[in-house]
Amino acid sequence: MTTTAPPPARPTAIPGPPGHPLLGMANELRRDLLGTMLDGYRQYGDLVTYRIGPGWKWLGPPAVAVYHPDGVRQVLTNPQVFNRRTAGFETLTEMFGEGLLTSDGDLWKRQRRTLQPLFTPQRVAGYTDLMTAEAQRLARSTEADTVVDLHELMQVYALRVVGRALFSDEVDDVATELQRLVPLASDLSIARSMQIVRLPLAAPTVRNLRFTRASAALYAIMDRILARLADRVDTDNDDLLSRLRTARDPETGQPLSPQEIRDQALVFLLAGHETTAGALTFTLHLLGHHPDIQDRVAAGGPDLVRAALLEGMRLYPPAHSTERRAAVDTEILGRPIPAGSPVLVSPWVTHRRPDFWPDPERFDPDRFLGERDRQRPRYTYFPFGGGPRSCIGEHFALLEATVLLSTVLARYRVESLDPQPRVTPLITLRPAAPVRAVLHAR
Ligand code: HEM
């Protein structure tokens, strides 16, 4: 008797929610990005397809979200295959220019090489005194037993630290304007990136005018800061700005153009404070709901403070998701991904997988101590991304945040007044409303 071997299984399409016939999942993702992605993971698993728009071939392949850590590793560690030429990064470039966050290819490589030495653990440690002084200043100036907005306080702190460390300047005067502009600029960028057909910015539509006005207002703030630092002759300074001014292209010897300096400075000003402020806000909020854990952390020294921060960023990762585009036909977790596919990864979802994070919604800093911490596979946790384009400010942010938490917890007992904060996933994760707390003197 002869048997015929079954034909080799053809890889099936990656499943996903069907969505609206013409819009696909555009509305759901726009209305509730994080909830829609988490539902997608729960229903379909490690890889999920999201069609955005009507699915006509000429609009390109659908987006694929990758929720399994092995797939996240593939995406983040292969920048040639999964690059930044995505709608999201293109609109960010239109809004904030070609700084380190948005540039790609050789330009990015040169920029990263120039700036990396400023962010080594050793260089960053040099900022400890400045961070401590700013944390103490904030703790001293906050009144005990009154209601405060943790987000507002943390934004003030993070902006002062970035201003002093990167520009050797006090940037308090731009804080209010930035607090208004950053969410607006993020919102406009996301809305533009999700348009199925994007008109050039020069087309005088209402949306485009709002977009270009927000971008111009951000650059105006940056120019004000740069103008007052223009004639500072301070050869001892090795801050970001001095480095940008003295940087030379290793091949051509050319300095950066004034436009390149503005772009770079703006990206650092924004990327350097929004994310850390969010991480601190949510961590303090969580500690304020768990008095027992808070007392342990306050008395437990740097390792426990760091564990609380890492756990805060697990539940509320400031960079909740990011995207890439497949440059060529490729595969993820053995499934075919056509060239041109937008590819999403999301710490928000992967950090909540019950197979890697038992009882995922529970705030438990012990996850980041001892054996449990050492045994965790790498890409189950990636608040700072990974691969060559991981966050250049990681050491800076961790130091800045642990200094603030230690200082505040040494002086105050934090009592959170709100239940779980509602979040808005703009470019970074932001609380949708003030995060109220009372600080009681210890
Ligand atoms: C808790 C705080 C922070 C978090 C969670 C965070 C997260 C991230 C993530 C996930 C990425 C990679 C994005 C991607 O792969 O698409 C990134 C990139 C970046 N971050 Fe951060 N960040 C933080 C603080 C900072 C600080 C303090 C600075 C500057 C002082 C900074 C500057 C940047 C820059 C310039 C990039 C682009 C790096 C490149 O592409 O070469 N970040 N950040």
Automatic annotation (TrEMBL):
Gene3D superfamilies: Cytochrome P450 (1.10.630.10). Its cofactor is heme. InterPro entries: Cyt_P450, Cyt_P450_CS, Cyt_P450_E_grp-IV, Cyt_P450_sf, Cytochrome_P450_monoxygenase. Keywords: Heme, Iron, Metal-binding, Monooxygenase, Oxidoreductase. SUPFAM superfamilies: Cytochrome P450 (SSF48264). The keyword Iron applies. Belongs to the cytochrome P450 family. This is Cytochrome P450.
